[in-house]
Amino acid sequence: MTQRVVGNPIITFIDFLSIVIGAYGFHSTILTLPLPPHLVDAGHWQFLTNLSLVYSLAVFVVGFIAHITKSERLFSLKNNLHPIGLALESIVTMVYWPLRLFCLRLLVEDTSLYPIPMSADLAIHLMPVISLLIDYLVFMPRWKIRTRTAFGICFALTAAYWCLLEYLVDVENGSSYPYAFLNVPHNGLRALIFVIVGGSAFVQFLLMSKIYSVLVKSPQDSTIEDISKKEI
C-alpha cells in the first residue's frame, strides 16, 4: 500500500503526461477540428468524448497538484472524482473503438470524411482510460463510493447527457445526433440505447471494484492472512 499515498512520484509523472497528451487532444479536436454541416450547430460539446476528456483532465490536474503539494485534501478530492471519470472514459472506449475499427458507419454518416488524425484519436479516446486505470489499480486507495450511489450517478449522468443532446441538437432543422447510432426513428429506441449505456457504466463500476478487490489486498486482509498462517 506504500505506493497508494499522496506524493508518489510515478503517478505524479503519469498525471503530468496525461495532462500534456490530453491538452494536445483537446487542441487538435475541440479547438481546431471543423464539424460537418449536420453537426456544426450543436458544436463540440455534443460529443460525450469531449465532455469526458474535460472531466478526465480535471481529475489529472487535481491529482497532479495533490501529489506535487502532498495535499491530503486534494488527494481525497481526486479519489472521489475518479470513479465518475473512469466510468465515462470506459463507456467512450467500449463504444468508440469497436465501432471505429469494425463499423465506422455507426459512428459517422460519411465515413470518407472522418477527420480525426490517429494521434489525436488516441489522445482523446484511449489515453484517458489507460491513465485512469493505471492510477486506480496501482496508485489509488479503494473507492469509497457506495454501490447505490454509483448506480444513481451513472443513470443521472446518462439522463443529463440525453437532456443536453435534446437541447443542442435541432433535428427538425437538419441537425443530426453526434453519433450515427443515435439517429434512430423513435425516442423509445434511443432511450433504450441510453439505458444500455448507463447500465454498462454501472456494470463497469462493479467490475472495477471486483478487480480491485482481487488484485489489491487491504492491510486488514493481509493481517488476517498472516494470523491464519501462524495458527496453521
From TrEMBL:
GO cellular component: endomembrane system; membrane
Origin: domain of life: Eukaryota
Organism for this UniProt entry: Debaryomyces fabryi
Keyword Transmembrane: yes
Main location as per UniProt: membrane
Alphabetical UniProt keywords: Membrane, Transmembrane, Transmembrane helix
Localization (cell): Endomembrane system
Residue spans crossing the bilayer: 12-35, 47-69, 81-99, 119-138, 150-169, 189-208
Protein name in UniProt: FAR-17a/AIG1-like protein
Membrane topology field: Multi-pass membrane protein
